[in-house]
Amino acid sequence: MLFCNKNYIQIRIYFKYKIYMYKAYQGDDPLNIDWDDAYDNSGHIDGAAQYPPKWTKLAQGFRDETNLGGRVELDLAYGDEAREKLDIFHPQGTAKGLAVFAHGGFWRAFDKSSWSHLAAGAVSRGWAVCLPSYTLAPDARISHITRQFARALEFAANRIDGPIRLAGHSAGGHLVSRMVCADAPVQANVSDRIEHVLSISGVHDLRPLLQTTLNETLMLDEAEASSESAVLCRPVDPCSITCWVGGDERPAFIAQNDLLANIWGGLGANTKSVHVPAKHHFNVIEDLCDAGSELTRDFIG
Fold first, then answer.
1. CA-to-CA distance for 156 and 228, rounded, in angstroms?
2. Cβ contact 131:103 at 8 Å
3. N or C, fewer C-beta in 10 Å, the chain?
4. Average pLDDT for 12-36
């Protein structure tokens, strides 16, 4: 009976999050947290401005490499909106299955073209990898982006046979987690193929963002922040998910990571929480480029 009362669940989750944040900030008043600072990654990473151009260069290099081998499909339209495009990188031979990566950027920045290189590890291990773009805030609300990602997933799943594994970073962690919520807008024949989800530094409780200046762009209200929070949803059954975070990340992201693993573990999902020492929000994803890394192994098995 413990998990039958939704209001009771939400109250427990809220106070558990506050306890996480209280411990993370080592005694700061948990009711007076500076939420803008809590989610400010760039302000706490040395050389933060150097990362986006680095990602762009690496991504272009990987696209050039795979294009020479005729193993990439670029800018496939999965819908009618301008940014409803995706890329699929194919392995040598028949793909073992479909791996989909959702990019981050707080739902308001970047597109698929900055992250192509992150497909390298999974492609080397024999998987077809899909990277979708989606409409950014403020031109789309987060609930709309969730539906877009589901359509991209369904489009790719209709092109690639076999099991499906999902990974996402930051806001992308939110999107892939939402795909395995019981109320996810995903067709049953696609949902049934999802073997595993890897949420890297994912945002799983959107309600704290209501208290940030970021919300001037996201335009979240209480109802949408709650309905789009994976921690307030039931996972599908069965569900396998890893919540992966850098040990040097902002305490808010570590709290978000552990919260979903804890809550969904209590709801019957197969969950794992991983903290990687000496990794921050911008370099925690780099090991996806390496076919032999623990991160890639968790992604595609």
1. 23
2. yes
3. N
4. 59
> Which element (helix H / strand E) includes 74?
strand 72-77
| Interval 270-284 mean pLDDT | 98
Q: Which residue has the tokens 């080397």?
A: 124
The C-alpha atoms of residue 161 and residue 187 are separated, in whole angstroms, by 15
DSSP, collapsed to helix, strand or coil, labels residue 61 as: helix
In the chain, helix, strand, coil percent, each to 5?
45, 15, 40
Which domains, from first to last, does the chain contain?
49-300 (3.40.50.1820)
Structure tokens at 283: 């370099």
Question: Could you read off the pLDDT of 84-96 as tens digits, one per residue?
Answer: 999 999 999 999 9
* Average pLDDT score, the chain: 92
- Has this prediction a pTM greater than 0.85? yes
Q: Which of 228, 259, 33 is nearest to 142 (CA)?
A: 228
The dihedral sign for the CA sequence 292, 296, 300, 301? positive
Give the whole-angstrom CA distance, residue 110 versus residue 96. Answer: 29
Contact 81, 135 (CB under 8 A): yes
Cβ–Cβ under 8 Å, residues 176 and 244: no
109 token code pair: 């920045």
Give the Å distances, CA to CA, from 244 to 15, 84, 168, 280: 22, 27, 10, 11
Q: Which residue, among 218, 207, 269, 282, has the nearest Cα to 243 in the 3D structure?
A: 269
In contact, 154 and 187? CB cutoff 8 Å: yes
Between the CA of residue 58 and those of 91, 289, 294, what are the distances in Å?
Answer: 18, 10, 21
**Cβ density class 148-182: b for 16+ within 10 Å, e for less:** bbbbbbbbbbeebeebbbbbbbbbbbbbbbbbbbe
Dihedral, CA of residue 130, residue 260, residue 195 and residue 78, to nearest 10: -30
Identify the band that residue 12 occupies on the pLDDT scale cut at 50, 70 and 90: low
